[in-house]
User: Fold these one by one.
Assistant:
Number 1:
Amino acid sequence: MAQRDPLKDFLVELFGPAPGARNGRTGQPTPEPAVDPYRTFAPVAVAAAALAFYAPQLADTAITDTVDQARQIITTVHGYRWPLGALASGWSALDLVRWRGHRQRLALEAQLRQTTRHLPVKVTVAFPPGIGALRSAKIRLPRGAIIRPKEMDEFTTAVRGVAGRTGTYTYSVRHHAHRDLILITRKPIEPDTRSPRHKALQTALAAGTIFKEPNVTVHSCNDDGIETGYKITFTPSLNSGARGFQAKVDEALAALAGDHESGRTWATEWTPSEGYLMMYLRAPLPTRVDHPLALVDENLRHLPYATGAANLSLYWDVSTKSNKPHCLIVGPTGGGKTSVIRTLLTEASRRGIPFLGVDPKMIELDGLEGYPGCAAIVYDAVRSAMLVRALHAEMMARNHYVHVKKIEPSQLPLLIAVLDEFFILSGKWQRLAKDEDEEIRAQVKQLDPLGAWADLAVLARSAGIRLLLGVQRPDASLFGSSSGNARDNFGTRISLGNLSQDGALMMWGDAHVGREVDTSIPGRGVVTALDGSPVDAQMWWTPNVDPHPNKWNQLSAGEKAIVHGLAPIESPTFEFFSTELREFVEAERALAKRAREFGDAPEPSVLTDFPTDHDTVDDEVADAIPASAVTEGMAILLDEDNGHPVPVTVDTVTVVRDKDTGDVVETVLSINAGGRVKTTVHFDATEVVMLPEPDTVLTTA
């Protein structure tokens, strides 16, 4: 292998290959370059100037005194030494600039050839080309040259990487395909006056793949010049319109922006159809809001119950025109569900709307018994079934009245029906339907509370009846086959505490909503906003309104003032359209009065001809859940042969679902009864199981 000559390589690079030269490795003719070889005549001027400066010394050593003519020439040249020196310096500087331009043209030619595989026809750079960075350039391409976008991006990156190393300029590379021309221009980089927050947002969005072509601009600043809002533009995509995607981006943007100096929190408002979103500041949610004594909303059909961002009051619209007529509240024990129910009912009473309710635990709504506007609070499972059936009769009577009188449904008086702890109530009804007493089974079958409940949820809106449902956890079995499409009618929704992934999907249609609630703040949750979207909110605190000394004496002076201030001046009027509901309320009030007088309630056999034992375990259980929600290792209550429930531990759970819809068809629980003997219990889609304590896991000795 022949050795390479460094001097020859330098000269070839400096002056370019000779025309018609061949490649030393391949033997093929070298393509004629677009950049002409570099030619310089500065050495001639430098040599002449040097001769002029050193002419006397040369004359003394090389020329004798007899040669007068030579001496005269040398003297004349020496007299022009300074002009010749200036000429040599200027010529050298000019050649240095030309050399710099030549190097830049060679670099552009090489970059274009390597990235696009095209040999340019001509490369021209601005004169002077710039010592530290390229000023501008024009590259003439072969006629009809095709450059793909990816190749153009690579060439642009190469130009910016080499020509812009100084960091002082930014380069624009434009390809004019119709002219077979590439233009390169530069402009000074303006000083970056953006704030660290602005830089962090732009850098993160530009480096990520969340948006295409994102750009962050400052939208607003406060009086101190601190940025308070940003506008982020992007190219619209399918993801930008998805609520789950937006929620993730909102969380990421808030984390990038960090805590604001004002103490307010970041929020976003999306306009995906136009390709932008707004980041703005909003007041943080309060940690406690006492029930206001003044009417926050003057609309008597709006029942406010919580405060959202920017001190916005959130309400339940119970008007006939409402598209969210019924309300669903989900919250664990101690999560504030009872206080929210008290808030809604006291607000209803202030606005002249009566209510009645069912409390299977006998501890949640008992304080409202006797409150202005309260028709009755029912605790017994049988009488609860009778109430649901009476409400159904009331609904039918109201609809008949509207039909006969030819009036608008909005003219009917409103009535709110509360069913708290619906799972426990449903479990009691199912157990009564399997009771050993044939008369009890026949009575429950005739009442059909679940069927009546399904009709109420779907049809009660036009009759002026509003349903307020309280449960500890959402589940599809809550509105199973017996309840039809009841869930769709509960447009006003409130969730307290953190939901599971399935619970979030069931409640909000999004697996991410309601799963990161700050449970250290009592009353914090997610509610339905005025536009129907889920938003964070702080529930109002309404103390127990029970006037009994044992309850009243536990309240502080401020809480007592709230209770007194909430009491309506005039108690709401009850208007019954059905004999069934009127007689039921009258009987229930008589039972409650007798209970207060004698300290104990009589057995409901007076009305139903069969006894109900209030001292059973049913009234003391802490919770009930759908059978399909049971997990392995969980403790549940099962009835023994004598009818008494006992706690057992579930070994395995098998949930059978419909292949087409995915709905629960059957749940099979395997119970270890001791030793190797196992008991299998089957539950249908709507059945629930009772828990001795919330989510208890039994331990073996």
Number 2:
Amino acid sequence: MYNQKEVAWVGEFFNAFSEQVNHSTVNFTYANADMLKSQSMPYSGDLPTLEDEIVVQESFLDSLGYSNELGQTINIPFSDGTTHDFKLTGILNVKTGDIGRYTAIISKELAEQQYGNNIGMDYYIGLKNAQNMSEEEATSYANTLAQQLEISDENVIVRSTYFNLKDENRGSDMLFYFLIGFITFVGSGIVIYSIFYISVASSIRNYGQLRTIGTTKRQIKKMVYREGKLLAAIAIPIGLIIGNVIGYFLVPAGWYWLTALCVTVGVGLFAFIIVMISIRTPVKKAAAVSPMEALRYSDYKETMKESSVLHRKITPASLAKMNLSRQKTKSILTILSLSLGGVLVVLISTMLVSYDGVAEARGREFPTGEFNIQLNANQSWDTADVSLAGLQKKNLLNADFVNAIESMDGVTGTKRWYYTDAEYRVNDYDDNWIYGFAKEDVSVLEENLIAGTVDYNELVSKNGIILINDTAENLSLSAQLGDEVEVDFLTKAGQTITKSYTIMGIVSNFSHPAFNMCFAMPMELMNEACGMDCSGTVSVMAETNKSDTIEASLNQLIDGNHDLVMDTIEESITYYSRNQQLPFGALLIVAIIVVCFSFINLVNTTITNFLSRRQEIGMLQAIGLSKKQLIKMLCYEGMLYSVFATFVTLVLGAGLGFLCVQTVAKTINPYFYYSFPWLVILIYLAILLIVQFILISYTTGNLKKQSLVEQIRAME
């Protein structure tokens, strides 16, 4: 394989064994550098080559009380009471220690020493130019290579998911990033528009003076466009360089210079177009002004609808409403900008708070209880590759063991879960592992019943078995009521026997602490066939305020028994919650950036209005507008922006959030339940009010620096 010219890399992988170390599960695995790279598992230092060398996670070293200094000898205690010394040659940069699971990389020499010729090494082959290869081409080459190396077809697997996901992910990922980029461009475009609008508004007099000495409209346009192009020529390359550097360091293995170059050019052109579109209106305004208009220019020149009312009461509130209505376009843009950021924050926050990590832990691993004590197959240093049935022969989860658990202070009950690694065959499909269920589980099965029956006694009397439809569909297993299922069991005597069962019921799902399986049968039939108790897990129910004490007692109970391992619901919740928080947390950062754009736009709009109205405000003060009334007027203006933006944010954000949660719950993850993010909304509104307060303080403070005469003459 290594000498084939079509092969880019060969990953070697062997899952040697797992051990309980300080009540955490440690998977001891052999993998070469290509394998770790393909699985996005970076490391520092060197991979182990000798039997006493090892690479572990830094968090695992912390749990043992060691520093991360390479070359030191670390002592690892195993659950059977033995200890093993290893020389630390590297650090595996994978963060999983806080959920009670660690990975340790051992040497190939150690794996071969433990297993000899029985080592079942897996080889992962990466083909050159695989990203441009079809599944048929890869399969054809794999089969040809297998024939040359005399490898049987059953030992060759072409990962269809790679080719399926490659195209799907490429399209979906590109669409996702395009949407994020587009939203960012829209936000930045509004800010650019506002900034140039301010620039043009403050320079109108200068443009008028240039017109008096012969400057044409076309020359004015070229001058403003040139300013925009110069700023774009400086800022866009800086942004592209920073973006490329960040992108490379985020995913070094996914960096392709040709793709990066094409995307960089495309983004650069798109950004430039956004700039040109954003400054188009300010450019027109600058070019359209005449010398006479420039002398008396005011930012508010839109035609106002005349009122039929001869006498109108002028109040701070009416003035605020009038000011916003005179520049409807700019006011609407500002409100939309604030709303866009708010809607994104509400939408993504809704997804975050609507996820229920406890429900997922319950649904997948802890249907009952807070602790799972289970048989640890394929785990031991000296007894590796032990089957589940082999451990069940020892009857470790016996009545005395369960009684010892139930006698602990704070334990409210236990439940046995049944399953075994029996092999089954149905309709030319074969696989292994089957659930067993007790009479008390029938009510749960009835809730998920699709067809047939789940009556316990009827299934026992007629040798019936139940099909788990969701798992069967995922594994492309086609079966229906009445089909025969042949099952090979390993008995307590060490013999393999074959029994036949009839599919008498179909259920959508069966909540069980073991991994997903296709079939379930009454535990009575399973125990009878194997000639032993097929318990694989004991769930422990505990009082909430005594969980820590019970966990310590359970750890003490299984200490020294490497055939038993324990998982806690807290570890499971942490694991599943992290999986959801990472992607939505990244999206929330994008939303916050958009909110920052919207606040910048609010600041620009407020300052523009203020600069354009200093003379007007001075006139109002001259005819009796008090400072208190002025502050009220400015407050009302800010409140109008905030009220409209908040209304749009709440309506659209809540609506889109509800739709997204429902969609995700139905298609991707059923453990999303709609919840409104009140805290996030309150924080957003508080920040909005603080920004408004700062702007009001700035504008009123600026007016204090000038006398009324100076304000009135400011535009002369």
Number 3:
Amino acid sequence: MALTFTDLVEVDLDKLGTAVADWKKTVDRLKTSAENARKGMQAKSDSAQWAGVNATVTRDFIAKTAKEVSDLHAEANSIYQVLADGHPELVSLQKQVKDAAGKDASALGVRVDDIGDGKVVCIFPHIRGDTDERTQEQLDAKRELESRINGILSHAAEIDASVARALGKSHGGDAHNAGHSTYESLNDAQAERALELARKGDKMSDTELQEFNRLMRFNGREKDGEFATEFYQGLGGPEKTLEFYAEMSVDGTNPDASKVRLNAMKDLQQNMGFALANATDPDTRQHLPASWGSDFRRLGTQQIGWEQGQWNKPYGYQVLGGLLRYGNYDPRFLDPIAEHVTQLHKKDPYFFLNNKPTGQEDTYGFNPSGRLGSGNDPLNSVLEALGHSPEASEKFFTQPPTAYNEDGTAKGGSPGFTSYLDLFTDKDFDWTVDTNDANILADEDKTKNALTFGPEALGHALESATTGRPYDSDDASDAIKHTQARADLVRDLVDKFGEHPELIRHNENGDIDEESGPLYGLRGSLGDITAEYMGDFQRAMYKEDPGSDLFPTFGTAAGLDSGHAARFLGAVGQDPDAYSAITSAQQAYTAEVVDHVVNGDSQSTASLDGRVGDVVAPGSAIAGIMSDARADAIYEYHAASDTEFNEAAADKQKWVDRILGMGIEKVGERIPIAGAPLEWASEDIQESIMKSIEKDTTTAAELEAGKQYSNGRGAAIDSAQAALDNALMNNQHINSDTADDLRRAVRTAAGVSHSDGAQWNSESDAK
């Protein structure tokens, strides 16, 4: 019977706490008794001169009695350890579920209903006179709360089941015989159960596979690494790990597998990946030896089999790649693998792909997630791994490469290129088609799409390296200070694509006779990187003095070249997602610097209207570049539509919150503006952004008449004035006449600068 919401909310865990304390006393007393038995009657028995019946019966009886007391102590200690670990976890989960179902549900206006079987539903109660219409934001929040509560219940049920199972094994079911399974922690018991299930391999039932996933999900990511390390050690080493994952992934992605099985395999891929990252981190309290990394590299080019007489065997890296796609891996483990795989790919791009299975569905393979390939080419996999591992990706792209032999041992010296950025951005680098789709080369659209998998994964790795966060991190995650290495990498990217924008061009049979570049698939990530470094890009527009604090950077400044930055923006902004990220960050950043000028302290003797006009100019110039880039994408390259640009803006609220969260800095220290960050302006700024993006359109007739920027120019003027209006709300000392003068100055500067940006981009197109 499943643990229900009502069970968790109403159970009195204080009684369990009392039981833990009682068992601790029992353990201590039994320890004393066991020591007394061993040092007392056992020692005396061993040293006594027994004769006759006493030499056998009595001596054996004393020995058995002493052992039984010792076994009772071991059993009691096992029970105590399991209960002591389980109790605080259940207390924490009970508090979480009460908070979620109480204050969180109340704030959202929903009721939490227990529907049994360990599940709840959240419902907006009907109120008389209410239309019952809900915004998408409310519906999303309701679903998030429902999912969160059900996740807590699932975690509590896993702990409850694990504790019950461990207690049963500790006791053994024999009232006259102590001494059965013993555990030093609840993790020991959970790892034991996970390994019991893993040894069944693909014979695990769907129910057992769900249990296995719960054990891995809730324990594999624990910071101390105990469970993850015990589990992988218990599998039997790197080769056995690859055999198990290969067997499970092939079973779960087989064309005959049910949807339930495939979904469970997707969960297993993630859960085992996160656990492997945890277990291979040398900084966790318990971790696998460093030899696991070198063993995986050795196995990378060896074929892995898991069945007797198996015909088609994958290479180790094809299997390992599926696990590496999830988890934040330590650079000491991941970077040598990523370097080795990249160098193998450079030597022979089709070494791994020549080994892929034929005649299978595209879901078949070692990447059940289906994201960016079937998993046959491990290059895509290690790039995705770097995308989730910021420290590893930063070092991978910023430190000199190390050459590796085919067996994965370090060769030393240079591998024949100076940096992985240079290698991947070489126009002649071979990106492969990682898909099992039949007749893929005969379908031009499928081939084009598959060829973007590698560049998109490269973009994820670069995004991670330059931002210090996994590329798909929580939208609400904090910004991280830009280090010198990250800032230098951004400058290298801007120089690279500013000089060679054709590398990221996307032309879908447009009016211009130019081929698409090989790397247009990474433009979405380049847009996110631009948004993250908006201060640096605004500095570059009108060549702001590096010592100026008017346009602050978040950490080390990137020092971007003005011309390269403009051409980079023009090429990247043709992608709808990148355009929206850049536009959102630009307007949020401009709102901050305007507020700083209007409400911050300054010793400047220049007029306020002039200073306000100056600070809206760089953002408006970027808006002009974006307008021209959008028109190019739609009318010149036919790579996107107005609808796609508008729809891409819907999920960019994170950039508003993230930019506002960075704050304005002086001398490297964050200082609040007018007493607090601009969080109060977030919704207003997002509304302004949406209006701006929707207005920044150009019809074919307007393009023909040479008026393609009129709407975008108007949108830039409106957004600049909105930034000023937000700032004026916080200043009661500026009278209405002065406010009107400031609005006029802002409108003029925004209009002129938007035209500047559009003209810069148009001129670069003509080159």
Number 4:
Amino acid sequence: MFGTKNAPTDAIVLAALDRAAADGVDVVNMSLGSTGDRSSSVLSLAVNHLVDSGVPTVVANGNGYAGPFNAAAPAVADGAIAVGSTYGSRYPFLAFTLDDGATAPVPYLDSGRAPAAPVTGTHPVAVMKSSCAPLPAGSLDGKIALFAPYTGADVFNCRVMDLARTAEAAGAVAAVHYDPSRTDPDAMPFSPCCDTIGIPVVGIRARDAERIKAAPAGTGLTWGAYAGAPLTADAAGLMDAGSSWGPGNELEFKPDVAAPGGYILSALPPAQDWYGVMSGTSMASPHVAGVVALLLQARPDLTPAQVQTALQNTATPLAMTGDHERGRQPVAQQGAGRVDAVAALASVSGDTVTARPSELALGDLEGQQRTRRITVHNPTSRPVTYRIGQSAAVSAAPPYTSRWQPTDATGEAHVDGQDTITVAAHGSRTVTVHIRQPHGVAEGTLFSGWVEFTRSGSAAPEVRVPYLGMAGDFDAVSAINPTFTSINTSLDNPALRPGYFSFGKNVPTTIDLTDTSTANDKAWVMLSHGFPLLERMRLQVLDARDEVIDTPYDASWVTRNSGAGTGMAFYDWDATRADGTPAPAGTYRLRLVFDKALGDPQKSPGTQTWTSPEVTLVR
């Protein structure tokens, strides 16, 4: 088990994987990873070796509200079963009960600024006046204080945590707060301000506070329950908005599948107070690891590839989060769909057909058609006939940030000259699938869907193979993040600026080395770059003849720093030449050069440049 304070180093993870292989484990779960790494990273290669040795390895795909191209490593490893996160049907709140004759538990949210609420224990609850004036010593001994926010003139000197400290000083063992001013009686206050405290502090709904106030004095409050609130149709069972998108930075098909990971009530390490509600792909991947163990229990001889095929062939495609009637969520976020344990078990038990490969990574189509072959195997003792069709997902156009653009234009998949196939008992058939990109979409649009096999006489597909591709030319996607300036309309990106962390429009600037100030001794470029992976990125200094005299920044395999669309970095030139000698007085310009990963060396769009206004150097 990893420590609770510090993230494990690569060396620790590698040692754990070696130990797993040596101990002959059946399946490995990795609820860890870092965004931006490649499928050739050390941990990704280690995962591939473990899978090659026969151990299915399930990896959390990562978390972030950053749109396409945010899968973590080692989830991007070829052999990893990368898992995205879905919401459940309900939000499970931690809760307490009251001995007031009613049975409904009272849900709450921890403040995050105090010890977590205990898992057991009963104490009388007392209504406390919303005032920071000291209470008589011991007046709340052994009790739990209930209060609303202070609303007096000096409200900023008496906030929720100040009230909780007043209760603590009077002997309270915990504090419960609510906000009667909220228009939604089901809303719970969270993240109260300010500072920390030594007793638990939780927030509850205003209507539950009214229930407590109406109860007899000294009513007991017992910790250790839970309650659930249903999610809306635009969220329940669908992809968690915080689940990281694929594909991998080099157009690998990721994630592979999805599973419940949003709002999971789970056991936690003792240092995290034993249990709580958490969200993320780190909660989703253990669900899939458990399903893998179930499959291996039924069929110990399964290879990792056969396990992945069963999971993907039988997964359930999900509707679009936030707009469930529009269509299906892009494959780039949900993979094949949500894992169906029962259907996957039936598949490995020989009751249904399988189709391989179980996913199709198409790359960038550049306006062309992609052809792939799918082999359908029938393990049953009777022939089966299938209709072949496709179902498309909503497409995702750039920018590759949280502001990705959904589009209803979809690709098209069809099979050579046939819409049905019959597969003999214990036999196989191979079909050739042709997939075309959607028309009229922006360069770099991710399109996706499923090739579906529906048994004759059945209404729903029995087997699906997801596909994921890019319309147009990957090289044509801008390395410069457009979201930054659409959010910050008064700024330029990139921008030549006179100082570090100086924001604004592009302006000519002067490096003046004749005065005593150091504030103007450098020229700065602010940049928010949005291309998933740059093979190389450089900042060059050009003299008046456009010759490169210095390269202050030169890095390989650089991932986007735009994140949700607002990330940026600053790069500087200190008025020297490449050999370290002073550059002479004169006029210069700074140039950014972006060499895009997977760029075609025969095409200039693989490299993009930006050149600044003039930099005047005075000596």
